[in-house]
Amino acid sequence: MRLAAEDFMGAKIPQGIMKLPYGKYVSIKAPIFSFMRLDKADPVLGVEMASTGEVACIGEDFSDALIKSLEAAEIHIPVHGGNVLISVGGKKLKQRVIPLAQKLKDLGFTIFATEDTAAALKNSGIYAVKLYKIHEYGMEPNIMGCLQNGAIDLVINIPLPTTVEEKFKTIMEDEYKIRRMAVDYNLPVIINLQLTEVLIEAIEKIRRKEREIKSLNEYHQTLKELYW
Questions:
Q1: Of 98, 104, 166, 211, whose CB neighbour count within 10 A is largest?
Q2: Which of 38, 87, 16, 29 is nearest to 56 (CA)?
Q3: Residue 148: pLDDT above 90?
Q4: Most confident of 4-13, 39-48, 101-110, 148-157
Q5: Residue 96 burial by Cβ neighbours in a 10 Å radius (0-12, 13-18, 19+)
C-alpha cells in the first residue's frame, strides 16, 4: 500500500525492493456471496456477478490457505469425512469426475449420487448410494429428503452448459434445485471441477498435519525486509 501511494505521488520505487524473496506462506482471498438472502437465486456464478464481501487468509501452503479461506467465508468443509453428494451432467463430465470420486472414497467419504452418475461410478468400480432425483418425489431415498434431514455434508454439482437441448430441461431444473437446497440448508456446494480437484487435494494434505494459526506479525517476522 505504501509503495502504491508513493508511486501515485511520483516517488521512485526503492532499488532492490522488487528483488526481495517472497515469504514462505500463501495468501488466498475468497469471495462471499449472499445467496441465502437472495430467494431462488442459482449459485452458479457468471462474469456479471459481484460478491458482497471477501475474506483473506494466510496459510503455510496452498491447501492450508484454501481451507482457512473457505471456512472464513462460512463454507464449512467436512475435512475429516462425511457424506458427499455427486451430481454431474453429461457423459464427458461424468468421466472427469470419476478419479475425483475415487479419491474421496479413498479418504473415507461415503458417496451419494444421482442415478446416471451412480451408474458411471459403478462401471469404474466405485460404489455410490443411489438417490432419486427431486422431481421423483415420493421415491426413496430422495435427494430432497437427504438434504433436508442433514444426511449430506458436501454437494458437488457440475451443471450442464446452459446451451444444452430442450430435452435436458428437466435435468437442468433438478440440478438447480439441488444447488438451491444446498444453499438454503447452509451446505457447501462446489460447482466446478477445478475447485473440486484442489479441494480434495487440500483435504488430503490437511489431514497429515495439524493446522496452525499465526498472527500477521508472525508471518512478517519470516520476511527478509518490511516496507511500511
A1: 104
A2: 29
A3: no
A4: 101-110
A5: middle
Report the Cα–Cα distance between both ends of the chain, in Å, rounded. Answer: 8
* pLDDT at residue 140, as a whole number: 87
Per CATH, the architecture of 77-204 is what?
A: 3-Layer(aba) Sandwich (3.40)
pLDDT at res. 166 = 46
Q: Which SS3 state, helix, strand or coil, does residue 41 take? A: coil
Q: What's the pLDDT tens digit per position in 15-40?
A: 788 788 888 899 998 887 665 555 55
Can you read off the three cell numbers belonging to residue 39?
Answer: 430467494
Is pLDDT above 90 for 67?
Answer: yes
The answer to whether 116 touches 91, Cβ cutoff 8 Å, is no
Tell me the domain boundaries of the chain. Answer: 77-204
Could you give the angle at the alpha carbon of 86 between the alpha carbons of 100 and 39, nearest 5°? 130
Q: In what order do the strands lie in the sheet with 110-114?
A: 129-131, 110-114, 83-88, 154-158, 189-190
Amino acid, res. 51: S
CB atoms within 10 A of CB 116: 17
Give the Cα separation of 133 and 183 in Å (integer): 17
What is the CA angle 87-174-54, rounded to 5?
A: 70
